[in-house]
Amino acid sequence: MSASLNQFFFAVYPYICLAVFFMGSLARFDRDQYTWKSDSSQLLRAGQLRWGSNLFHIGILFLLFGHTVGLLTPHWLYSPFISAGQKQLVAVFSGGTAGLICFIGLSLLLHRRIFDPRIRLTSHRTDLAILVILWVQLCLGLVTLPFSWHHRDGGTMMVLAEWAQNIATFRPDAALMTGIDWPFKVHMVLGMTIFLLFPFSRLVHVWSGLATVGYAFRPYQLVRSRRLNVPRRGA
C-alpha cells in the first residue's frame, strides 16, 4: 500500500465513516422511522432462521465487545494482570471460537436468503449486500488468526490498539500501520466500511437493541387512581 493510500485509509477514512455512521443514523431515524426495522423473514420460514440467527448474534456480539475492549483499553490498565502476549493468545482462542460460531450462523442466514425463492423475492438488495459484506469480513477475521498466532508476543496487537486509541482521541497516526500484515489492514478497512454503510442498511436496528438496555433501567411510572364524581341516582 502506498504512503498516500495508507494515510487516507488510516487517518482520514475512519472519521468519514464515523461521521456518516452517527449523522446518517440520526437522519434516518428523523426522516424514515418506518424503515427502522430488522425486516425479519421469520414468517416465511423459521427453521433455519432460528439456528442461523442465534449463532450469528451470539458470535457477533462477542466479537463486537471483544474488539472494542481489546482495541480501546489502554495497556497500562491491564498490564498488572496480564501481559500483551497472554492477551494476544486469549484474543486468538476466544475470538477464533466466536468468529467460527458467527461464521456458521451467518452462512446459514446467507444460504437461506439466496436459495429460498420466497425469501429471495422479498429481500432488498441491501439486505443481501450487507450479509455478503459481513460474511467476507468474518472470513478476513479468520484469516488473521494464523498471523496473530505468529505474532504471539503481542506486538502487532499493541500497534493496532495504539492506532485505534489515537483515532478515538483525535490523534491519528497512519504511520503505525505501515508494517502491519495485509490481512489486518484489509480487515480494518472493511470494518470501517461497514460503519459507513450502517445507516443505509437494516443494521440500524442495532440501535434499538442498545436502547432496550436503557429501557430496562427506566424509572417507575407512577399511576395514581382518581375518583370520579359520578352523580347519584335521583340527585
Automatic annotation (TrEMBL):
Compartment list: Cell membrane
Topology term for the membrane: Multi-pass membrane protein
Keyword vocabulary terms for this entry: Cell membrane, Electron transport, Heme, Iron, Membrane, Metal-binding, Nitrate assimilation, Oxidoreductase, Transmembrane, Transmembrane helix, Transport
Quaternary state and interactors: Dimer of heterotrimers each composed of an alpha, a beta and a gamma chain. Alpha and beta are catalytic chains; gamma chains are involved in binding the enzyme complex to the cytoplasmic membrane.
Gene Ontology biological process terms in this record: anaerobic electron transport chain; nitrate assimilation
Entry-linked InterPro entries: Heme-iron_electron_transfer, NarG-like_domain, NarG-like_sf, Nitrate_red_gam
Listed name of the protein: nitrate reductase (quinone)
GO cellular component: nitrate reductase complex; plasma membrane
PANTHER family reported for this sequence: NITRATE REDUCTASE PRIVATE CHAPERONE, REDOX ENZYME MATURATION PROTEIN REMP FAMILY (PTHR30598), RESPIRATORY NITRATE REDUCTASE 1 GAMMA CHAIN (PTHR30598:SF3)
UniProt GO MF annotations: electron transfer activity; heme binding; metal ion binding; nitrate reductase (quinone) activity
Known EC number: 1.7.5.1
Residues holding heme b 1: 57, 67, 205
Domain of life: Bacteria
Transmembrane segments: 12-29, 55-77, 89-110, 130-149, 194-217
Binding-site residues for heme b 2, renumbered to this chain: 187
Signal sequence annotation: none
Taxonomic source organism: Ideonella dechloratans
Enzyme class: oxidoreductase
Pfam family, one: Nitrate_red_gam
Annotated NarG-like domain residues: 6-226
Reactions catalysed according to its record: nitrate + a quinol = a quinone + nitrite + H2O
Gene3D superfamilies tied to this protein: Transmembrane di-heme cytochromes, Chain C
